[in-house]
Amino acid sequence: MARNRAPAAAREAAEAIAAQALSFLAGDPERLTRFLAESGLDVARLRAAAQEPGFLAGVLDHLASDESLLIAFAGEVGMRPADVDRARITLSGAAWERDTP
């Protein structure tokens, strides 16, 4: 039974990171404008789009597409860029394997 909880917990954690990422983007007009332009959204549709499946993965895809943006976000929230990428992979539904030490 514990095996069923782990994926849900990982998804919830990934969604929380993506929500932080959206807040990070929205906190700066230039970052938000770029995100909206690249996603094809406008401010009026952003809230509705945020409820759609795949939206949060798209937010993290956007961060991952720009290393300096990814590093800035990770630094602001106190996590490693690899943690953000792991959340992106989790939300995209792809399998993620732990890096070996």
Short recap of the structure:
This protein is mainly alpha-helical and 101 residues long.
What is the fold's blueprint, element by element?
Layout: H1 2-26, H2 29-39, H3 43-49, H4 55-64, H5 67-77, H6 81-92
The whole-angstrom Rg is: 14 Å
- Mass-distribution shape: globular
Order of helices and strands: HHHHHH
Helix content: over 70%
How many domains, in number, for the residues?
1
- SS summary, helix count: 6
Q: Termini, distance in Å? A: 28 Å
Low-confidence stretches: 1-6
What proportion strand? under 5%
Instruction: Indicate the mean pLDDT.
Output: 87
Number of strands: 0
The helix-and-strand class reads mainly alpha
Biggest β-sheet: count, sense, barrel? Answer: none
Properties at a glance:
single chain, 101 residues, mainly alpha, 6 helices, globular, disordered N terminus
What features would you describe in this structure?
- The protein is built from six helices and no strands.
- α1 crosses α6 (81-92) and α4 packs antiparallel against α6 (81-92).
- 75% of the residues lie in helices and 0% in strands.
- Mean pLDDT is 87; it is low at 1-6.
- With 101 residues, it is mostly helical.
- It is globular, with a radius of gyration of 14 Å.
- The protein has one domain (2-92).
